[in-house]
Design brief:
Largest sheet: 8 strands, mixed
Number of domains: 2
Strand content: 15-25%
CATH class of the largest domain: Alpha Beta
Order of helices and strands: HEHEHEEEHHEHHEEHEHHEHEEEEEE
Bound molecules: zinc ion
Helix content: 25-40%
Radius of gyration: 22 Å
Shape: globular
């Protein structure tokens, strides 16, 4: 008995040591520790629009596709359904493009995507209902009308249909995290620092082509299993490298959390009291879509963990909508007040730009960085390469060997600089 108690104590110590001050992340894999998995009942899946009318069901795959097509035909001036690609098993990856001004190419582009982990399905239904709500509210709800007139809003409710419908098109009882190749798609995106362990999966290849066709400036990837707003970076702790717009992220996350808590005070409390955290401070991952979007596309993307239960009983879905709908809509509006660093980069970066990591597709450039104080250019492992005295400096990256550098201004602020060679 005593030996048993000692074993328990040792295990507890190991767990506490391994996970530090933050609570376990049920979304993490491994370990997979969610104690709140709810086994969906067969009646939780709707196969017809009538069954879906109360938004208290998960749609079958066929109904999902039908709903998307129906919105396009019911609202032809507001909604266009784009095919991002197809999954391994041939299911469609769809995106609803919503705007009242489809020909205006100057509109800022926003992107919501959910359920890249196929068993995290709250966000799937939230985004479907969001599409419906925005379209039905156009012309009567002033906020929705204004958003649709001034924004191109793209919504991909289901990024991993093979994982969700692993048991069949009308069945989510075996919904799984992975795609049909048993790959975790949110560990499979290109990462500038760590080589991928597995080949790029077809779902992600299609997603990369899709986001490359757009100029998304703000986006979110919805997950479940915890409740927390997880802002970049995921690849680093904030002590290693904070996002250039960390302060802005914290303000945006706080607005989201505060809005949700107005409707349910217990929302976003299971990881930290604030309800938001820099991803790497929770735990570091590489290959996630969030860092890929921020790094390669200059799109401000964060990871929204919106429900502690990955697949709640379908009857609970209206409650989640009640809590989250206003925060989800307001987050779209944030695309109109982005920090200055989120301005799309030009092939030759202007002196005032804070961006120091170009999209490789745009090719190499010369960075002119006005520096507030003396700065060191360092390699990622901390070796100092060159000192720049205070004042405006031109850094010709063509003189530097290819690689990734940090430009640290001695104030704890670091810009990341990637030097590419043809
Ligand atoms: Zn997830």
């Amino acid at each position: 008995m005593r030996r048993y108690a000692l074993l328990v104590a040792l295990l507890c110590t190991a767990v506490l040591t391994a996970f530090g001050q933050h609570k376990l992340r049920p979304d993490a894999f491994p370990p997979r520790v969610s104690g709140k998995t709810v086994f969906v009942k067969s009646g939780d899946v709707a196969t017809s629009a009538e069954q879906m009318a109360g938004w208290n069901k998960y749609p079958s795959y066929g109904l999902y596709v039908e709903m998307m097509r129906q919105w396009e035909s019911n609202f032809p001036s507001l909604c266009r359904i784009d095919t991002i690609g197809t999954s391994i098993n041939g299911r469609l990856l769809l995106s609803a493009e919503l705007t009242a001004n489809p020909t205006d190419t100057s509109l800022p582009e926003f992107f919501y995507s959910s359920s890249i982990h196929g068993d995290e399905l709250t966000g799937y239904v939230m985004l479907l209902r969001l599409i419906d709500t925005l379209l039905l509210g156009y012309g009567s709800n002033s906020q929705y009308t204004q958003l649709l007139r001034t924004t191109r809003i793209c919504i991909n409710p289901l990024a991993n249909p093979d994982g969700t419908y692993a048991a069949g098109d009308d069945d989510i009882s075996l919904a799984m995290r992975f795609n049909a190749d048993y790959c975790d798609l949110n560990r499979n995106f290109p990462n500038p620092f760590v080589a991928a362990k597995e080949a790029l999966q077809p779902e992600n290849e299609a997603m990369i082509a899709y986001v490359s066709r757009h100029r998304f400036r703000l986006s979110a990837n919805l997950h479940d299993g915890s409740e927390v707003m997880n802002y970049p970076w995921d690849s680093f702790t904030s002590a290693q490298l904070s996002h250039p717009d960390a302060t802005w992220w914290q303000a945006v996350c706080k607005r989201f959390v505060d809005t949700a808590r107005r409707y349910y005070a217990q929302q976003f409390i299971d990881v930290c009291d604030d309800g938001y955290i820099a991803g790497g401070d929770w735990y570091v991952i590489t290959g996630g879509r969030q860092d890929y979007m921020n790094y390669y596309h200059h799109c401000l993307e964060l990871t929204m963990e919106i429900s502690a239960v990955k697949t709640p009983a379908a009857s609970q879905l209206p409650n989640y909508w009640y809590r989250l709908q206003h925060a989800l809509v307001n987050y779209i509006a944030e695309v109109h007040s982005l920090p200055t660093s989120a301005v799309p980069p030009a092939p030759s970066v202007a002196a005032s730009s804070r961006f120091a990591y170009p999209n490789p597709a745009i090719s190499m450039f010369t960075l002119s960085a006005p520096l507030a104080m003396g700065s060191w250019l360092c390699t990622l492992d901390g070796r100092k390469v060159r000192f720049f005295p205070q004042g405006a400096q031109t850094i010709d990256v063509a003189e530097l060997p290819a690689g990734v550098y940090l430009l640290s201004d001695g104030n704890g602020q670091a810009l990341k600089l990637q030097v590419l060679k043809p």
